[in-house]
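Observation: inputs received (chain + zinc ion).
Thought: call the complex predictor directly.
Action: predict_structure
Action Input:
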Amino acid sequence: MIPHNGYFKQLIDSPRVETFFSTRHVGLDAVLADQKIPPKDVVHMHQVHEANVAIVSCAPSEPIPNTDAVVTHIPGVVLAVKTADCLPLLILHNTQPIIAAIHAGRKSTQSSIVLATIKTIQNTFHCGDDFTFWFGPSICKACYQIDQETDLHFDLIGENESQIASVINAPTIIKSNRCTKCENDVFFSYRGGDRLSRLYSLIRLKPE
Ligand SMILES: [Zn+2]
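Observation:
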Protein backbone atom coordinates (compact mmCIF):
# COMPACT_ATOMS: atom_id res chain seq x y z
CA MET A 1 0.00 0.00 0.00
CA ILE A 2 1.53 3.27 -1.09
CA PRO A 3 0.33 6.35 0.87
CA HIS A 4 -1.03 9.01 -1.47
CA ASN A 5 -2.85 12.23 -0.48
CA GLY A 6 -4.08 10.69 2.79
CA TYR A 7 -5.30 7.41 1.28
CA PHE A 8 -3.58 4.39 -0.30
CA LYS A 9 -3.04 3.33 -3.89
CA GLN A 10 -1.22 0.64 -5.88
CA LEU A 11 -2.33 -2.15 -3.58
CA ILE A 12 -1.41 -4.66 -6.31
CA ASP A 13 1.81 -3.79 -8.10
CA SER A 14 0.69 -4.42 -11.68
CA PRO A 15 0.50 -2.00 -14.63
CA ARG A 16 -2.79 -3.67 -15.62
CA VAL A 17 -4.88 -2.46 -12.69
CA GLU A 18 -5.51 0.61 -10.57
CA THR A 19 -6.36 0.02 -6.90
CA PHE A 20 -7.21 2.37 -4.05
CA PHE A 21 -8.06 2.15 -0.34
CA SER A 22 -9.79 4.93 1.57
CA THR A 23 -9.14 5.83 5.22
CA ARG A 24 -10.84 7.46 8.18
CA HIS A 25 -9.51 10.80 6.94
CA VAL A 26 -9.99 10.50 3.17
CA GLY A 27 -13.24 8.76 2.27
CA LEU A 28 -14.66 7.30 -0.93
CA ASP A 29 -15.88 10.58 -2.43
CA ALA A 30 -12.53 12.26 -1.88
CA VAL A 31 -10.62 9.33 -3.40
CA LEU A 32 -12.86 9.35 -6.48
CA ALA A 33 -12.50 13.13 -6.85
CA ASP A 34 -8.71 12.95 -6.47
CA GLN A 35 -8.50 10.20 -9.11
CA LYS A 36 -11.08 11.90 -11.36
CA ILE A 37 -13.21 8.75 -11.33
CA PRO A 38 -16.91 9.44 -12.04
CA PRO A 39 -19.00 8.00 -9.17
CA LYS A 40 -21.32 6.44 -11.77
CA ASP A 41 -18.46 4.10 -12.82
CA VAL A 42 -18.37 2.48 -9.38
CA VAL A 43 -20.11 -0.87 -8.79
CA HIS A 44 -21.52 -1.05 -5.26
CA MET A 45 -22.86 -4.14 -3.51
CA HIS A 46 -25.60 -4.42 -0.93
CA GLN A 47 -23.48 -6.71 1.25
CA VAL A 48 -25.33 -9.23 3.40
CA HIS A 49 -22.57 -11.52 4.80
CA GLU A 50 -23.41 -14.39 2.44
CA ALA A 51 -21.36 -15.97 -0.35
CA ASN A 52 -23.19 -14.79 -3.48
CA VAL A 53 -21.04 -13.70 -6.42
CA ALA A 54 -22.16 -11.32 -9.20
CA ILE A 55 -20.55 -10.77 -12.61
CA VAL A 56 -20.96 -7.32 -14.13
CA SER A 57 -20.05 -5.66 -17.42
CA CYS A 58 -21.07 -2.14 -16.36
CA ALA A 59 -21.89 -0.25 -13.18
CA PRO A 60 -25.60 -0.57 -12.28
CA SER A 61 -27.32 2.58 -11.01
CA GLU A 62 -28.19 0.84 -7.73
CA PRO A 63 -26.08 -1.39 -5.46
CA ILE A 64 -26.27 -5.05 -6.51
CA PRO A 65 -28.65 -6.68 -4.02
CA ASN A 66 -27.72 -9.63 -1.81
CA THR A 67 -24.09 -9.84 -2.96
CA ASP A 68 -20.69 -9.97 -1.25
CA ALA A 69 -18.40 -10.56 -4.24
CA VAL A 70 -18.31 -8.97 -7.68
CA VAL A 71 -16.34 -9.82 -10.81
CA THR A 72 -15.72 -8.00 -14.11
CA HIS A 73 -13.59 -8.31 -17.24
CA ILE A 74 -14.43 -4.84 -18.56
CA PRO A 75 -11.71 -2.15 -18.29
CA GLY A 76 -12.85 1.05 -16.60
CA VAL A 77 -15.52 -0.57 -14.44
CA VAL A 78 -14.62 0.14 -10.80
CA LEU A 79 -15.40 -2.63 -8.29
CA ALA A 80 -15.93 -1.49 -4.70
CA VAL A 81 -16.13 -3.34 -1.41
CA LYS A 82 -16.91 -1.62 1.89
CA THR A 83 -15.59 -2.84 5.22
CA ALA A 84 -14.89 -1.91 8.84
CA ASP A 85 -13.06 -4.92 10.40
CA CYS A 86 -14.16 -7.48 7.77
CA LEU A 87 -11.48 -8.48 5.26
CA PRO A 88 -11.57 -6.72 1.89
CA LEU A 89 -10.10 -9.03 -0.73
CA LEU A 90 -9.19 -7.96 -4.27
CA ILE A 91 -8.28 -10.39 -7.05
CA LEU A 92 -6.45 -9.93 -10.34
CA HIS A 93 -5.96 -12.72 -12.88
CA ASN A 94 -2.34 -12.50 -13.91
CA THR A 95 -2.78 -13.06 -17.65
CA GLN A 96 -6.45 -12.47 -18.49
CA PRO A 97 -8.35 -9.23 -17.91
CA ILE A 98 -10.38 -10.38 -14.91
CA ILE A 99 -10.76 -8.72 -11.49
CA ALA A 100 -12.88 -9.26 -8.40
CA ALA A 101 -13.70 -7.54 -5.10
CA ILE A 102 -14.83 -9.57 -2.08
CA HIS A 103 -16.33 -8.76 1.31
CA ALA A 104 -14.94 -11.53 3.52
CA GLY A 105 -16.41 -11.20 6.99
CA ARG A 106 -16.56 -14.09 9.42
CA LYS A 107 -19.86 -15.41 8.08
CA SER A 108 -19.01 -15.13 4.38
CA THR A 109 -15.57 -16.59 5.09
CA GLN A 110 -17.21 -19.56 6.80
CA SER A 111 -19.37 -19.87 3.66
CA SER A 112 -16.13 -19.95 1.59
CA ILE A 113 -16.82 -16.80 -0.40
CA VAL A 114 -13.28 -16.67 -1.83
CA LEU A 115 -13.65 -20.21 -3.17
CA ALA A 116 -17.07 -19.36 -4.63
CA THR A 117 -15.51 -16.36 -6.37
CA ILE A 118 -12.59 -18.36 -7.80
CA LYS A 119 -15.01 -21.02 -9.04
CA THR A 120 -17.33 -18.44 -10.63
CA ILE A 121 -14.40 -16.81 -12.43
CA GLN A 122 -13.06 -20.12 -13.72
CA ASN A 123 -16.47 -21.40 -14.81
CA THR A 124 -17.24 -18.15 -16.61
CA PHE A 125 -13.91 -17.31 -18.23
CA HIS A 126 -12.36 -20.81 -18.47
CA CYS A 127 -9.08 -19.42 -17.18
CA GLY A 128 -6.35 -21.02 -15.06
CA ASP A 129 -5.64 -20.34 -11.40
CA ASP A 130 -2.90 -17.76 -11.96
CA PHE A 131 -4.27 -15.08 -9.60
CA THR A 132 -2.86 -12.35 -7.39
CA PHE A 133 -4.81 -11.77 -4.16
CA TRP A 134 -4.73 -8.62 -2.01
CA PHE A 135 -5.79 -8.85 1.64
CA GLY A 136 -6.63 -5.38 2.92
CA PRO A 137 -6.68 -3.93 6.42
CA SER A 138 -9.04 -5.94 8.65
CA ILE A 139 -9.39 -6.92 12.29
CA CYS A 140 -6.43 -9.03 13.47
CA LYS A 141 -6.83 -12.33 15.27
CA ALA A 142 -5.74 -10.87 18.62
CA CYS A 143 -8.47 -8.19 18.40
CA TYR A 144 -11.15 -10.51 17.03
CA GLN A 145 -12.48 -12.33 20.07
CA ILE A 146 -15.73 -14.10 19.17
CA ASP A 147 -16.40 -15.81 22.51
CA GLN A 148 -15.55 -14.08 25.76
CA GLU A 149 -15.97 -17.10 28.06
CA THR A 150 -13.64 -19.40 26.13
CA ASP A 151 -11.50 -16.54 24.77
CA LEU A 152 -12.04 -17.86 21.26
CA HIS A 153 -10.59 -15.75 18.45
CA PHE A 154 -11.28 -15.83 14.72
CA ASP A 155 -8.48 -15.50 12.19
CA LEU A 156 -9.99 -13.88 9.09
CA ILE A 157 -6.65 -13.70 7.29
CA GLY A 158 -5.56 -17.24 8.10
CA GLU A 159 -8.94 -18.75 7.20
CA ASN A 160 -9.04 -17.08 3.80
CA GLU A 161 -5.40 -17.89 3.17
CA SER A 162 -5.89 -21.60 3.86
CA GLN A 163 -9.02 -21.72 1.70
CA ILE A 164 -7.06 -20.27 -1.23
CA ALA A 165 -4.17 -22.66 -0.57
CA SER A 166 -6.62 -25.58 -0.66
CA VAL A 167 -7.28 -24.99 -4.38
CA ILE A 168 -4.21 -23.09 -5.62
CA ASN A 169 -0.64 -24.28 -5.36
CA ALA A 170 1.70 -21.54 -4.02
CA PRO A 171 -0.75 -18.65 -4.47
CA THR A 172 0.43 -15.04 -4.68
CA ILE A 173 -1.10 -13.22 -1.71
CA ILE A 174 -0.25 -9.63 -0.86
CA LYS A 175 -1.14 -8.87 2.75
CA SER A 176 -1.48 -5.34 4.07
CA ASN A 177 -0.71 -6.56 7.63
CA ARG A 178 -2.71 -3.63 9.04
CA CYS A 179 -5.40 -4.09 11.71
CA THR A 180 -8.43 -1.80 11.55
CA LYS A 181 -8.93 -1.94 15.33
CA CYS A 182 -5.27 -1.64 16.38
CA GLU A 183 -5.02 1.34 14.01
CA ASN A 184 -8.41 2.86 14.65
CA ASP A 185 -6.88 6.32 14.19
CA VAL A 186 -6.29 5.52 10.50
CA PHE A 187 -9.08 3.04 9.70
CA PHE A 188 -12.73 2.55 10.59
CA SER A 189 -13.36 -0.34 12.97
CA TYR A 190 -16.83 -1.64 13.81
CA ARG A 191 -15.52 -3.18 17.01
CA GLY A 192 -13.59 0.01 17.67
CA GLY A 193 -16.89 1.88 17.78
CA ASP A 194 -17.46 2.92 14.14
CA ARG A 195 -20.99 1.72 13.60
CA LEU A 196 -21.83 3.35 10.26
CA SER A 197 -18.62 4.56 8.60
CA ARG A 198 -16.89 2.25 6.14
CA LEU A 199 -13.56 1.90 4.33
CA TYR A 200 -13.59 1.36 0.56
CA SER A 201 -11.31 -0.88 -1.47
CA LEU A 202 -11.46 -0.13 -5.20
CA ILE A 203 -10.07 -1.94 -8.25
CA ARG A 204 -10.35 -1.33 -11.99
CA LEU A 205 -8.68 -2.71 -15.08
CA LYS A 206 -6.83 -0.08 -17.06
CA PRO A 207 -7.96 0.35 -20.66
CA GLU A 208 -5.70 -1.73 -22.96
ZN1 LIG B 1 -5.68 -5.73 16.04
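Thought: report the result.
Final Answer: The two ends are 24 Å apart (CA to CA). Helices lie at 28-34, 106-110, 113-125, 156-167.
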